Amino acid sequence: MLNIDPTTTLAWTKLQEHFEKIKEVEMSQLFSEETERFNDFSIHWEDFLVDFSKNRITKETQQLLLDLAEECGLEEAIKSYFGGESINRTENRPVLHTALRAKNSDSVLVDGENIIPEIFEVKAKMQAFSDAIISGSTKGYSGLAFTDVVNIGIGGSDLGPAMVTEALKFYKNHLNVHYISNVDGDHVHETLKPLNPETTLFVIASKTFTTQETLSNAITSRKWFLETASQEDVQKHFVAVSSNVQKVEDFGISKDNIFPMWEWVGGRFSLWSAVGLSVSLAVGFQKFNELLEGANKMDLHFKTEPFIKNIPVQLALLSVWYNNFFKAESEAVIPYSQYLQKLPSYLQQAIMESNGKSIDRNGNPVSYETGNIIWGEPGTNSQHAFFQLIHQGTKLIPADFIGFKKSLFEDKDHHDKLMANYFAQTEALLKGKSEDAVKKELTTQGLKSEEIEKLIPFKVFEGNKPTTSLLIDELTPESLGKLIAMYEHKIFVQGVIWNIFSYDQWGVELGKQLASKILTEIETSKVSSHDDSTKELLNFYLKQ
Ligand code: F6P
C-alpha cells in the first residue's frame, strides 16, 4: 500500500479550490439545473438502490474525489486487502474477514497456505453444533433440551452477533439468545436471574481469552451454573470461540468445545467467523450462511465494480468530502427498521475503533481530520429525539437513511407510514422551508402580520443538509450481509485515503492497564499516587 499524505496530492489541492467555489451551492438549485442528477448520483445494484444525489456534490466533485482515490493507490490497496498481504502492519497481520465468506472453490493464501478448507471445516462444525442444539438432539446435563443461549463477549465478540441476532429476529427459532458484555455485575446477574441452568448453553466468545470483562462474566456464570450442576456438566453447557486454546482449556473447556478463530480476523470484523455461533443458534446455520453469501456478493461488487459505480467507494469518498473539506465531525446512521436498532452502536465500534487514529502509516502525526463520529437511532423514533438538531442546529451532519421496500410482517398501513417519514425527512433536509413558505403557512393559520414577523426566523429551515438514501428490497440475512460488508469496505477506503492503519486498536490499551492497577488499589484499599481528581474520587468510593 502507498503511504501518501492525502493533503500532498494534486487532487486534494484541487478539491480545496473546488470546495471554496461550491461550499454555498444549494442542492435544490443543482436539482433544478441537472435533469440527470438522480441517475448520475445513484447506484442500483441487485436489491440495493443507493441514492447519493442529495449530497453537496457536482460531477466535478465526484471526479476530483475519484482522482484522490487514484492518487492514494486505492486500486492496489484493494488487491493487497483481498490478497492477504499484512496490511495490519503494526500487528504484522493480514486482514481477511472477507475470506470467511469466500466460496469453497476460492483460494486465499496465508503464509503460502490456502485458508479456505480450514474455514469450511469450522463452518461444518458450527452447522453440526447448531443443528444438534436447535433440534434438541444434544441435551443439557439433566436430559432436557436447551432453551436459552448466553453469549458472553465484549466489543467485536458481542456487538456484531448481538446486532445481527436482533436484526434477524423475524427469522429466529425457539432458542432465546441473550448477550452479556459489561463487567457490570448487574448485567450478568440480571441476565441469569430468569434462566434455568439445566437448559442454558453458554458461548464464551473472546479472540484473546484474556479480556477482563468476558472472563469475569464467564467465571460468574460458571459459578451460577455450578450451584446446581456438577463440574463434569460444564463440558455440556460451556463452549468457547477463541484463538487462544490454552487459555480456554485453563478455564475448563475441553478442546472439542472450542470453535477456533484466527489472527487474521480482527475482533470488530469477526461476526462472520465462529463468533457468529450465537447467530447460527438463533436463526439456524442456513440463515447464517445466507448472511455470509450476502457479504460475499458485496465483496465481489467492491472488488470488481469501477469506482464510479462502486457503492463502498462512493460512500467513503463522500465521507472524506464532508469530514475533510466541510469539516463535518459526525455522521448519523438512521435505519427505518426497528430490527436494525443495534446497527449504529455496532458501526460505532467498526468505524471509530478502526479509523480513530492520528498517526499516519509513516508514523507521523496527521495534519488533517481522520475518523468521524458515528451515531444514530432508528427512524421514526429519532425524528422525535435529535432530528431538531440536524434540521436547525449549527452543525452539518451527513446522514445515511436506510429503508426497506417491504416490511417483514407485511403490514402495509404501518410500512407506508414509516416509509413516508423516511422519504419526507430527506426531502425536508434537502429543501428546508423558506421565509415565504413560513409566511404563507402562518397567514393561512390566521396569525397577525406582527406575530408572523416575530416567528419567521424560528420557523425557517435552511435546508441543504446532505443525506444518502439506501433503499433495499427487504431485510433478509442476505441483504443484511451486504449492508454490513458495505460499511466494512467503506471503512477500508477511508483508511487508505487518510493513510492510517485501520486494523489495530492500540488506543484502548491504556485504560485497560490503568484499570487493572486501580483494581489492585481498590482491593487492598491502598490508593497510590494519582492526579488529585482521581485520588479523591477513589478515596470517596472506598469510604462507602
Ligand atoms: O476493545 C478492544 C478489543 O480488543 C476489541 O477490538 C475486541 O473486539 C474486544 O476488545 C474484545 O476482545 P476479545 O475478543 O479478545 O475478548
From TrEMBL:
Top-rank taxon: Bacteria
Keywords: Cytoplasm, Gluconeogenesis, Glycolysis, Isomerase
GO molecular-function term, one example from the UniProt record: glucose-6-phosphate isomerase activity
GO cellular component: cytosol
Record bears the keyword Ribosomal protein: no
Annotated compartments: Cytoplasm
Family membership noted in the UniProt record: Belongs to the GPI family.
Protein name: Glucose-6-phosphate isomerase
Organism in which the protein naturally occurs: Gillisia hiemivivida
Organism taxonomic ancestry: Bacteria, Pseudomonadati, Bacteroidota, Flavobacteriia, Flavobacteriales
